[in-house]
Structure formats: C-alpha cells, structure tokens
Amino acid sequence: MTTPFDIYPSIDIVSGFAMVSQAAIKMTLENSYDQSHVSKMILGTPTEVINKWQNEGAKKVHIVDLNAAAGTGDNYQAVKQAISMSHVRAQVCGGIRDDRTLERALNLGCERVNIGTAVLENIKWCEKVIKEHGNKIAIALDVKQINGDYYLTSRGWRVNGGLLWPVLDKLNKLGCLRYVVTDVEKGGMLSKPNFDLLKKVCAKTDSPIIAGGGVSSLNDIITLSDMRELGIEGVILGQALHIGIINIPSILSIV
C-alpha cells in the first residue's frame, strides 16, 4: 500500500490579507507594510483563498499568521472565519508561544498547530504541550545555513538561534510526533527545496516530516513524494502555487 503524501497550499497572511509568499516573507523580515506594495501582492482574503484551494481539490491547508510570527499584531479573526467557512483540515502557525496563544489557536478548529520560536525560547513549555496535545502539535524547524552548519531561526525568521542538531535530538527525546522543516533561504525563492537538509533531518528522527520552502516545479514535488520512505509525508506549497507555475489539479494527478 502506498503511503499517502499530503499537499498543503499555503495561506500567508499579512494585515488581514492572504499574500504571495515571497512578498509576505519580505515584508515580514523587513517589518515594512507599505500599503501600496501590499495591494499589488494580495491573493484575496483568507476565506477567499482557502475556498479557492478547496474548490481545486485541496484537503489540507497551511495557514501562516505572519504578523503574529513577527510580533506585529495578529490575524486571528480572519483565520477563524476562513477555517469555519471551509471543509479543509488546517495546519496553523505564527506566534504560538505560550498557553494563551496555544489555546486560542486550538480553538480555531484546526487539525494541528505548529510551534517554532518557543523551541528556542521555552523548551520546557514545548515539552509540556507535546505531552498534553500529542499529534495536535508539530514543531516547526525553520533552518538557515551559516558557514556550513544548520542553525534554527525564530521570530518570523528574523533571529538566528542555536545549532539545529542538538535541538532536534532534544525534541526527539521529548516525544515530538511531527516536524515541519523549512530552509528559510528557500522560502518564496523558487530555488528548489533543500533536499540535503531534509534527508539529514529524516536520518535523525523517526517522526514524519512536512517539507517547506523552495518548491519550483512538479518535478520537485515528485522528488519529495519519492522520499516518503525516508519520512517525508507532505509538502507546503507557496510561491509556485501563488503565481501559477503549478496548480493543485496537476499536483493531485501525480501524488
């Protein structure tokens, strides 16, 4: 029996709107929200975009509150409305760092929440919520390569943290059931996923991995789906989907 391979169209939210990934990431990293620039990169409201992906056949979505991730507000109500008006299963991330923000996220009715920054800032809290919520929690490993080594990033990819491997080892021992692995330098860049990073993470954990960052073609998706036996269970689709290089029906036809 073939192992399922999940696709997660990404809904990257800034200032209440779902935006093209590259622009949303750039604006978040620069902490710049020029309204004239925003308007050119808007895909629609989160509700409109989630319904578009659903109508094209998506069963799951990846929702990123980039304002919450960067500490510049949140888009909670927009996310809540989008999830409540759809039938897809949502994976939600951005700014989930304590009991209050975790409870709010879980109350959205999502399938899963991703926790990233808290891994570097409050590992004891991560241990607690992994034990309490199990499969409802995925740990987002947002990674940047510096001088040949892989480091974790936090606060919307703006802060460099510690080395990846000791943290991954610690999370494995805590019982983390799923990881979302992103090379942050690939995000929105259409430069192919970091297959080397993904293979190395797969080799160091028995938990399944969702790949993020860099998908530029159907061939990239085929390569990732061929890595199912290594532990890759799905892929997050951003820029290439948002600007029409790939589309959901063509992806569903090959995975």
Describe this structure in words.
There is one protein chain. With 255 residues, this protein is an alpha/beta fold. The chain contains 13 helices and 12 strands. It has a single domain, classed as TIM Barrel. The mean pLDDT is 91. It is found in: Cytoplasm. It is an enzyme of class 5 (isomerase). InterPro entries: Aldolase_TIM, His_biosynth, HisA/PriA, Isoase_HisA-like, RibuloseP-bd_barrel.
Broad shape: globular
Could you give the count of β-strands?
A: 12
Order of helices and strands: EEHHEHEHHEHEHHEEEHEHEHEHH
Strand content: 25-35%
* Total number of distinct structural domains: 1
CATH topology: TIM Barrel
**Approximate helicity band:** 25-40%
Strand order of the largest sheet: 1-4-5-6-7-10-11-12
Q: What is the tally of helical segments?
A: 13
Q: Please identify which CATH superfamily we are dealing with.
A: Aldolase class I
Task: Please write the CATH class name.
Answer: Alpha Beta
Low-confidence stretches: none
Give average pLDDT, whole number: 91
Based on CA atoms alone, the radius of gyration comes out at 17 Å
The termini sit apart by 14 Å
